[in-house]
Specification:
The complex is a heterodimer of chains A (about 160) and B (about 140). By secondary structure, chain A is of the alpha/beta class. Chain A is built from 6 helices and 9 strands; from the N terminus they run E-H-E-H-H-E-H-E-H-E-E-E-H-E-E. Chain A has one domain: Fructose Permease. In chain A, the strands form 2 sheets. In chain A, strands 3-2-4-1-5-8-9 form a 7-stranded mixed beta sheet, with helices on both faces. A two-stranded antiparallel sheet of chain A has the order 6-7. In chain A, helix 5 runs parallel beside helix 6. The radius of gyration of chain A is 15 Å and the shape is globular. Chain A starts with a strand and ends in a 6-residue tail after the last strand. The mean pLDDT of chain A is about 95. Chain B is globular. The chains are: A alpha/beta (about 160), B alpha/beta (about 140).
Chain lengths: ~160, ~140
């Protein structure tokens, strides 16, 4: 298994991910699964330019995601980044096994309620996280590797 | 004169400008923008685009970002691709001072290399200085 971290983070490749999470999990690759990002050539270019030369970033839409995960090189350590819970639920439906899901940044958007400073969810998104958990995945919110961990059951919504 | 925008996590950009103004005096055409928890990349990028659109000539703009791969830098790189601005990551006070001193006489096409050179040259450590003294 070469995927060492699944994280929801709507900033995708950014400071916390590159300076903290990638170091703690010793990753050299990031796989971004997001249709809108994959279809935006500007964003694809920016995400690839954001990382140092020895780091690898792949960006795919939902249609190619499960195959990409299955084919991830066994000798590499890869972090999967998505923007929304529904992407993870869809992966599960396609048979991808996910032991743990780290919920990071989900910023302000219409219909979202504040859970904490960095995490805001709509009712649907909260329910999707519950569904993901009932499929056997441990779901926890954590912004920094050194920071507090909040299990989904303890999260007040 | 080259327009300067400093972008950062939190108040670093505003603090850098304040520090530079303690040394060079009040500066015109320097905009600062901080990213705060709970703000999305899209929100930050839209604000940055609005600031750039209000400038007389967007291509004559140098963005100084705090951290490569950080969201303020990623948003700036979007503007490099969309608006033709120039961007340097890793801003420090030495870099900012040199940019502010040079931007009247030198053009935007030279600013990135001026910034990078100054930023690197401003970093020195006591081990190296002591070694130099011994020679």
């Amino acid at each position: 298994m070469s995927i060492v971290l699944y994280r929801i983070d709507d900033r995708l490749v950014h400071g916390q991910v590159m300076t903290a999470w990638s170091k703690v999990f010793d990753t050299t690759r990031i796989l971004i699964i997001d249709d809108a990002t994959a279809n935006n050539p500007f964003l694809v270019q920016v995400m690839k330019m954001a990382v140092p030369g020895d780091y690898h970033v792949d960006i795919v839409g939902m249609a190619d995601a499960a195959a990409k995960i299955a084919g991830d090189p066994a000798d590499k350590r890869t972090m999967v980044l998505v923007k929304e819970p529904k992407t993870i639920l869809e992966l599960q439906k396609q048979g991808v096994e996910i032991k743990e899901l780290n919920v990071g940044n989900m910023g302000a958007a219409p219909g979202r309620r504040v859970v904490n400073r960095s995490l805001q969810l709509t009712g649907d998104e909260y329910q999707t996280l519950i569904d993901i958990q009932s499929n056997g995945t441990r779901v926890y919110a954590q912004i920094y590797p050194d920071g507090k961990t909040l299990e989904l059951n303890k999260l007040k919504f | 004169m080259v327009d300067v925008i400093i972008v950062s996590h939190g108040a670093y950009a505003a603090g850098l400008r304040e520090a530079a103004e303690m040394i060079l005096g009040e500066q015109e055409r320097v905009t600062v923008m901080g990213l705060y928890p709970g703000e999305t990349r899209e929100y930050f990028t839209d604000n940055l685009e609005r600031v750039i659109d209000e400038l007389a000539t967007p291509k004559n703009t140098l963005i100084l970002a705090d951290l490569r791969s950080g969201t303020p830098f990623n948003a700036s790189m979007m503007m490099v691709l969309k608006k033709g601005v120039t961007c340097v990551a890793g801003v420090n006070l030495t870099m900012l001072l040199e940019v502010l001193s040079a931007r009247d006489e030198r053009g935007i096409e030279e600013m990135a290399s001026i910034a990078v050179k100054a930023g690197v040259e401003g970093i020195i450590d006591s081990d190296t200085l002591k070694l130099r003294e011994l020679k």
